Amino acid sequence: MERKLMIAPSLGCCDLFHVEQEMRIINEKSDILHMDIKDGVYVPSYGIGPDFLDYLNKNVNNLKPMDAHLMIAHPQQYLEVFAKAGAAYITPHTDCIEGDAFVTLRKIKELGCKAGIALSPSVPLQTIEYYLHLLDKVTIMIVDPGIAGQPVDSQMFVKIKQLAKIRKERNLNFLIEADGSMNKDLYKPLYESGADIVVLGPPALWNKDKDFAKCWDIMENELANELKNAKRDSCIS
């Protein structure tokens, strides 16, 4: 089966005056719904909360899986809250659970959710090597979390490639997600590195046009073209 690059729009970026119509398109056409939960402490910005997930879970038919990306200082205190709100994935950051990582990840699974982990750019892969077998998804932050407008360092492609190599060598099944400053120029190198999912924010999606339906069409065309180029180059090499 041909590998694809799944898309996970960050729903905190939705236009508040047009959330319903944007959600119809996003829920129909995306793979995962990315939920940036930010507390203003762990990162210097704020995001949506469990009430947002709970509302979607109760009011949207055939809702795609929601990923609660917990950019918060004490994620252990909120696992039950986000599980109850309908999160399919719960994804805390490594440095927030380093003292009780095994307990936290097993708790996420006991709650019926899939366990994710997020690594900031400076965090080495060795940090998670002893609990990789517990993970359903690894989110590689390709910029520092919670700060918009950063450039992406090419070392992050190397990091994803190394993670994909480890996954293959150990015969593991977690997904690899790339998150941060996403734009069309990153699809090809991320796909070639081994990423399975890309998180879409304003530069990759919402900023393409005033009409969100057109934004989506532009993004889909850009993604398709970049993947076509990646597959063409793979055949040539």
| Helix fraction by DSSP (H/I, runs of at least 4) | 25-40%
Largest sheet: 8 strands, parallel
Order of helices and strands, N to C? EHEHEHEHHEEHEHEH
Radius of gyration: 17 Å
Beta-strand content estimate: 15-25%
Q: What structural class do you assign from the helix and strand content?
A: alpha/beta
Overall outline: globular
Unreliable sequence segments: none
Our measurement of the CA-to-CA distance between the termini, rounded to an integer number of angstroms, reads 20 Å
The spatial strand order of the largest sheet comes to 1-8-7-6-5-4-3-2
Please give the structural blueprint.
Blueprint: E1 6-9, H1 19-29, E2 33-38, H2 50-59, E3 66-71, H3 79-84, E4 89-92, H4 94-97, H5 101-110, E5 114-119, E6 137-141, H6 155-170, E7 175-179, H7 184-193, E8 197-200, H8 212-236
Parallel strand pairs: 1-8, 2-3, 3-4, 4-5, 5-6, 6-7, 7-8
